[in-house]
């Protein structure tokens, strides 16, 4: 199963074909095996009546193992909250952040009252120059938040 915030159930492997053929989709037996097992075990777990009222307490079931919540999830919480802020500031999900959008950060309740719009503009320009890029993606946004925190 993919480990990201938009996992796919796709079981095809895409490879580039010969000149003029474009992408060729082939069945990935590994993806198929793993995803059928994961989805099948999830459905079996949901159908088990004996677990109905105890699902939040289950530590594992067949191929499933609970990993969250855990004592080590502070970093995950910070990431999730940071991504929510990023998504709130950009006009359309999946896009990069403009300086105007980033500067709206000073209006959010979760940001210190000491941060001024001008200092956000300076930080925005500085991080883009340092990273040698022309836009603010999620990864660079986190780097900028880290700079602001320091």
Please give the structural blueprint.
Layout: E1 12-16, E2 23-27, H1 29-47, E3 60-61, E4 64-65, H2 74-89, H3 99-103, H4 117-131, H5 138-149
Antiparallel strand pairs: 1-2, 3-4
How would you describe the overall organization of this protein?
The protein is mainly α and 150 residues long. The protein has two domains: 12-65, no CATH class; 74-149. 45% of the residues lie in helices and 9% in strands. The chain is built from five helices and four strands; from the N terminus they run E-E-H-E-E-H-H-H-H. A hairpin with a 6-residue loop joins strand 1 and strand 2 (23-27). The radius of gyration is 22 Å and the shape is flat. The two termini are 36 Å apart.
Total beta strand runs? 4
Element pattern in H and E: EEHEEHHHH
What does the radius of gyration come to? 22 Å
Largest sheet: 2 strands, antiparallel
Oligomer: single chain
What percentage of amino acids are in beta strands?
Answer: 5-15%
Spatial strand sequence of the major β-sheet: 1-2
Low-confidence stretches: none
Shape: flat
Instruction: Please identify the structural class as seen in this structure.
Output: mainly alpha
Q: Overall mean pLDDT score? A: 81
The helicity comes to 40-55%
Supply the number of helical segments.
5
């Amino acid at each position: 199963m993919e480990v990201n915030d938009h996992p796919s159930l796709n079981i095809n492997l895409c490879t580039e074909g010969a000149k003029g053929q474009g992408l060729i989709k082939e069945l990935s037996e590994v993806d198929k095996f793993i995803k059928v097992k994961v989805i099948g075990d999830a459905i079996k777990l949901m159908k088990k009546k004996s677990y109905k009222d105890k699902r939040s307490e289950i530590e594992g079931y067949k191929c499933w193992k609970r990993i969250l919540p855990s004592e080590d999830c502070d970093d995950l919480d910070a990431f999730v909250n940071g991504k929510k802020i990023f998504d709130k500031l950009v006009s359309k999900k999946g896009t990069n952040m403009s300086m105007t959008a980033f500067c709206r950060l000073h209006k959010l309740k979760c940001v210190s009252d000491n941060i001024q719009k001008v200092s956000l503009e300076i930080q925005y320009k500085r991080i883009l120059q340092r990273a040698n890029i022309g836009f603010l993606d999620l990864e660079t946004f986190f780097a900028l938040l880290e700079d602001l925190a320091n």
